[in-house]
Structure formats: C-alpha cells, structure tokens
C-alpha cells in the first residue's frame, strides 16, 4: 500500500532529470527508493526528502558555470502534489524545498499529516494563500515557508504550533498580518525565527519584553520599520545571532532598559544600513563581548567611534563599508589580532596614504587576516612592501582608489592569495613576471590602470585562475599560446582596449580553457577569421569588435556556440552575406555593425524560428533589397538598428508586431512610402530614427498620440509634407526632435512648451538599454546635426537636447512659447519663411550652444537678451531683414561677420555701420555737462507735453458731448490695434 501511494505521488510530478528513476513497481522495496526512509522496526515510511538541487537553494553566483546552474534547474521537481501522501500515516518529515511547482497553492491536505515534525516547502514557487490548516500540525518542530508569492492576512493559525523550534517565513508578504508579534509570543519553544523581507512595518517598539527565553537566532532584515530599535529585542538575552540589516531603524539604541549590553550571548550582529544617533555608545557596549561577526555598514560610523573596539577580542569578521571613515583608521583595530575578514570599502579616507594605514593598522606579529576590502575609499599613495606581511591573506581588494606606482614585489609572498583586485587605480609600470608564482590565484583584476609593456609568459602558469581582467591599460606586444598554456580553469578573459596582437605560433592552436566570457575588443586578431574561437563551446559573451578581421565569417561559426548570449563583431571588415548564419536560440545581443556584409536579409530574418534576441545591430554595412515581412519571429527585440545600408521599399508592416521595441533606427537608407500605421502599436518606443530616407506623406497624428514615450524623433531629410501636427506636443519626454530638410509647411505649433524635459520639468534619459546578466548597450552610431555639421554622438546622446525644423517651408512668427525650452542645447529654424521679430525672451534659453535662424524673413532688432547666451559656440542670423545694433556680449562679438550678413545690422563684429547712430558709450565721452543739459531738456519737454496734452484732451471733453464720443471711439480702436499686434 505504501508503494502504491508513493507511485501515485510520483505520477503527479514532472521529473526532468529522472531523479525518481528508482521509483518503479519492479523495485518492490520502496524504503530503498531515492529520498525515502522507513522505520527499521515497523517498516512505515517516515521520511520523504526530495529537495531540488541537492537540498540547497543557491543564487546564480554559487555555480561556477552558468551551465551548472541550468543543469541544477533541471533537478527541480514540477507538477502537482498528489494527496496519496495521506496514506503515509507515520510520515514525520516532508521536504519539497527548492523545486518549482509553478505557482500552485500548497495543498490543504498537508495539514492532515498529523505526525509531521519537519515541513520544508520554501523556495519551491508555491503561490496563493498559505493554508491555515497547517496550524493543525501540533507536533511540528520545523516549518520553512520562505519565498511564497502571496501575502498573509493573519498569522493566528501559527498559535497551534506550540512545539515549534524553527520558523522561516522569509520573503512572505506579512504587511497585513498586524498580529505577528503577538502570535510569536505564543511559541515558547522557538529557537530560530527568520522574517527577512516580509514587508513588515509595525515592530511594536514600546512593548517592553517578550516571554521567549529560548530564542537564539532572530532575522528581521530588509523590512521597513522606520522606528527606534524596540525594547523587547534587548529582553531576549538568549540571542546568539541578530540580523537587523536595512530595517530603517533610527534614533538612540542605548538606555538603561534599551541596550546591547544585555545581549551577553551575542556572537553575530548585523545592523547595516540603519541610522543610529549614537553608534559610539553601541560599539562601546560591545567591548569585551563574544561577537564574532559584526556588520555596521552604512550606519554613520566615524573613525573616532571605532576607538571603543579594542576589547573585541573575539571579532573575526568586521564590515565597515559605506560609513564616514575619513582621515584615519584607528590603531585600536590593529589590536584585534583574530580578525580574518574586514571590509572598509566605500568610505572616504581623504587621500590617506596606504603605507601609513597598513603599517599602523596591522600591528599583530602574526596577523590572521584572510580578506581585506578597501575599494572606493579615495585612498592614495603606493602599495607598500609591508603588504607582504599579511601572509594568510586570501582576498585583497583595493579597487577604485587613487593608488599609483608599480605593483610591489612583496605581493608574491602571499601564497594563499585567491583574489587580487587592483582595478580602477593609477598603477603604472609593467605587469611583473613573478605574478605566475601566485598559484592559488582565482581572480586577477588589473583593469583601468596605466600598466604598460607586454604580458608576462608566467600568466600561463596560473592553473587555478578563473577570471583574468587587464582591460583598459596600455599593454602592447604579441600574445602567444605560451601565455595561456596552463590556464585550464579560465572562464573569463577580459582584455579590452590594449594594443595587443594575438599570434599563436601553431596554426591549428586550440586553447586549454573553455571560457564563458571572452572580451578582446581592439586587439589585433586578423586579418583571417580566428578559427580557434570555434573550440570555445561553452562561451556566453564574445566581443571581438575592432580586431582587424577582414575575411568572411564561417557559416558554421555561430552554430558552434549552443549557449551564446552576446556576440559583438562590429567595426571590422568582415565580408560575405548573412544568409548562412544560423542564430543560436540562446542569443540575446547580436552586433554585426560596421562591417562589409552585403545582400538581402530574407533568409537571415525569416528562416529561423522565434528568437530571444533583444539587441540587433546591422547598421553601417552594404545590405540591400527590401526589408522582409517576418518580424513576428523577433518579438523580443528591444533595440533594432539598420542604419546606413541601402535598403529600399516600404517600412515592413510586421515591425509593428514587436511590442517590446524601444529603439528603431533605419536612418540612411532608401526607404520610401508613408509611415506604416502598424507602427502605432509600438507604444513602448523611445527612439525612432528614420532620417535620410525617401519617406513621403504627412506626419501622422498618431506619432504624438500613440508613441507618447518617444525621447528621440528623427525624420530628417525625407519628403514629408503638410503641417507639423499639434499632436507632437503629446511627446512630453522628447529630448531630440529633428524634422529638418522636408517639405513641411504652416506655422510652428505654439504648444512646444509641453516638452517637459526641454523646459526643465522632466528628467533626462541616457538612452541606455540593459540586457540580462549585466550586459547592456547604448544606442551606437546615432548621428545628429548640430552647429551645421553631422556628428555621431553615441554614448553621450542622452546629453543632447535638440530642436531642428530647418530647411522646410514654415511660415508665421516664431512662437514666444519656444523660449520656455530652457534646457535646449541646439535650436535650428533656418531656411524657412518665418517672419516677424525674434522673441524678446530668447535669452532665457541659457543652455543654448547652437542657434541658427538664418535665411528667413525675420525683421526688427536683435533682442538685448541675446547677450545672456553665454554658452553659444555656433550662431547665425544671416540673410533676414534684421536692423539695428548687435547687442554687446562676450559671445556675440566673438562670431565672424558671416553670422550677421544679409541684414541691416551694425556694431561689432561688423565693420560697416549701415547707418547706425553712434554707440551710447560714445555719447558719454562728450562730458558730464552735455549729459546734464540733455537730461534737463528731456525733463522740461516731458512736463510741457504733459500739461499741453492734458488740457487739450480734458478741455475738449469738458467743452462738448460730441468730442467725448469721438475721443473714446478713437481710444477703443487704438486698444484693439495694440491687442492684435501683441497676440
């Protein structure tokens, strides 16, 4: 009967890895089946132990390869849980943790397994409400329900579990379970309580004490209590481990009733990312305690507060990152001779000298230090030779500081060193040959320094090395197979932006490693395509861009990498067609831009099944023909770049079937027809680049009403006609609007002041799109016209704010509303038929760098406010009907005369006066007497004019009714004339 019950239970499960292969009828002894244990005397099944991934739930970082992670995921049971388990009357242990049950609810019948003492369902992708029937399991000692995908309204059912020792509900939403603390007090046998990430907010801070004398482990981390540390925590004197990380605690943590001094058994204390007012008193109370691990990261701890730690003789692990350590690290820390791990990263030591710190900090004769993290501390100086005294050191992280000089030879004495990270400093000199003696090394990161010279051959002796990163240095020379001869463990090789030539001496060289990340951007690998790459079967991320490869890519190349996620071969001269390239189903990022690929895309785009690709860059090649209609197979695309090819025909209708698309770039082709209405389905689009094509018709209104997230709209150099639709004003987040070189007519819309980013009300976008596992890409190759020339902005595109309506047939006035675009960097309205005056408030646009109003019909004087545009580096108002004097400013007088030609302007920088009166400054040179005489003459004229005018009008009004009617009629007409001019 027991065997049949287990077989029915197996029938409901999906077992991809066949871990239940022994569960078959032919194997009659079910007690010998995997995961099953029976009582030796009765033969009853008392234990079903089937956790996924060997009983542990690890993050991706735990697995040394992504393939291992994928294999582990297959070891997770799926499907349903059959109620046949009820036939196992003596079952006291049920562990189904770390599996994947697809969001189903925990079966209520589990609450009827009355003999259960151990129940673990955590991290198995259960959903719904936790059944309160579990409260019937009165003999339960261990209950693990972590990481449920639903909230709990109350926890009252837990009160029935009076024998519970261990309760883990981490990750369960308990925000509505206001009774949680009261319920905990009804569990007197509780030893361990884990409530991390439970959305708790009410911690009942004024409750004085809890009647729980056995609790030794309490984890309340990553909740949002926003209060002071409650008094009841300090009443639990049995606590050995206390984790209050990121709980938004603040205020005082010590008083006669409210003190860490009471926790005499404490060994682990994590209070990182809180805001305590008196951290010094808290740390002083810990002196002489049993604390082994102390984490006070991001708690506002200063250097002075650490002087009270000299009696922490048991301390092994100390985390001080993200605090206010500035001028010094106290020598008292050097007295803690049992320290094995210390993290001082993300502080500000104010250019403290590293030599001083090491010589005064670690004073123990035999320091036990195993890991030292000091990244992002603004530390300066050189690395002292005394670093070699830390003979037990396994991890040394000095990254992101201001350390200069060479790598000291004493590091070679650190024979236990596994991680050496000196990246993002100012180290110079060559990479020493003795580096190969660090035989335990697993991670070597020297990126972003100033190292020069060649790579030492001894690197090839680091057989345990997993990560090697020397990107962004000045390394030169030839790299051969001797540099890699024993790197059998290597998984990540990152060497971007050095001047290195890879030249294996053996033509059919095959590397000894199987890397996952290979980033060799800007090396010289060509001219032939490096065939040794095809031996890297496990590769995930491959970047060989700008590596001087000019031959064809083998048709089998992409098919060699069944796990490939990211491929960048851009900026080479790779030839051939794309038709033979088979795309792995795992690929997410594909960049083939700036090569010499040619031909059509029919086979490449349409022969594959549905793909996962999110980033596809085919720009700057020689691809041609019409763009095929099969984009439904590319429904995951986020970024699509096809610029600067020779594609013709219409925009494919099926591009509108890519709902995830955020950036579409087809500029610089021969695309014709109108804007397809299907594009209005791309409601997530942020970038639309269709400039330099042959598209015609009017700009549809739906561009503004449907594509409301657009930040860059470039329709430049097409054949669009009609008016600029007012609906474009719905693009409130737009940063770049380029409609230049079309046949647009009508007025400039007055509603451009709705553009919130350009008016300073919104936030800028960096035009950066992130991809899985930390990969990302900015929009490469985005070309815009500023200052009268075409430039590629690439990574700084998000800083550009541009409005270009030039070379159209626009008429009417420049709307005054345009002056509210105070964040605009470039404004070009040239080569239109605009008339009227330049708006007086044009000087409010203080961020302008480029300003062009040339070749219009503008009249009147240049506004004086132009003198406030202090950032201008390009300015042109030539060939209008402007008159008067050029305003005086540092910027305007710095431009050439050609910026003002074709007007009736005068003053510097123009040499001709054009009939202008002398400058005001010349008037002042005639003397103060003349100025005084003119002032008195003006005053007398004003008085006489006022008196005469007053009696002329007032007298007429008094004299007769007919005069009054004529006067008020004239004043009424005059008012309407002024109103029309102003509006």
Description:
The chain has 983 residues and is α/β, with parallel strands linked by helices. Among the domains are: 2-100, Leucine-rich repeat, LRR (right-handed beta-alpha superhelix); 205-300, Alpha-Beta Horseshoe (Leucine-rich repeat, LRR (right-handed beta-alpha superhelix)); 923-982. It is built from ten helices and 60 strands. The strands form nine sheets. The chain has a 33-stranded mixed beta sheet, with no helix packed on it. Strands 33-35-37-39-41-43-45-47-53 form a nine-stranded parallel beta sheet, with no helix packed on it. The radius of gyration is 38 Å and the shape is globular. Residues 58-65, 770-781, 792-796, 920-948 and 950-983 have low confidence and may be disordered.
Q: Would you tell me the structural class of the helices and strands?
A: alpha/beta
Helical stretch tally: 10
Strand content: 15-25%
Number of E strands: 60
- The parts where pLDDT drops under 50 for at least 5 residues are 58-65, 770-781, 792-796, 920-948, 950-983
> CATH superfamily of the domain at 2-100, called what?
Ribonuclease Inhibitor
Oligomer: single chain
Helix percent reads 10-25%
Shape: globular
Q: Kindly provide the radius of gyration, computed on alpha-carbon positions and rounded to a whole number of angstroms.
A: 38 Å
Report how far apart the termini are.
Answer: 93 Å
CATH 2nd-level architecture of the domain at 2-100: Alpha-Beta Horseshoe
CATH topology of the domain at 2-100: Leucine-rich repeat, LRR (right-handed beta-alpha superhelix)
In CATH, what is the class of the domain at 2-100?
Answer: Alpha Beta
Can you summarize the main beta sheet? 33 strands, mixed
Mean pLDDT: 84
